[in-house]
Predict the structure.
Amino acid sequence: MLQRIQSVYLFLSALFLGLMFSFPYVGFLGRDIQIYTLGPAGLIRFTDGEKLMDIYPVLILLLLTLLISVISIFLYKNKVRQMRYSVFNMLLILGLLILIGYYIFYAKNQLDARIIFKVPLIFPLLSILFTYLAFKNIRKDEILIKSVDRIR
């Protein structure tokens, strides 16, 4: 299963999506010299740990994309379905990025704060990249299989 390169790419995609559950996405420096973080737990004031906002839609979409990534790893026998799941997952991850961006700018306006971007914000982009590489290799395998079937 993990012997094919596309399975490794799908695993890396799922790994980066899973890491999104562990780290804050952005930090905010408010005018009142307060530090806030926006992550999987929501918008949290850093000094006292008070939760100011929940981001359940982001968590649900993140869980869905992670689940589709893991499922598509195990669809290695059905390449057409694996390609469809990969394309659908790339679209969902793009939607996840847009939703995270919405929450970032909503929180920025509510707090009247400056945004401090953190490294985990690029994890969805890396996940899209690895899913695309997996899709490309799955398609290449499917084309190879069809060409061999034509020869027989």
User: Anything to note?
Assistant: The first helix runs from residue 5 to 19. The longest strand covers residues 26-30. The radius of gyration is 19 Å. The chain is about 60% helix and 15% strand.
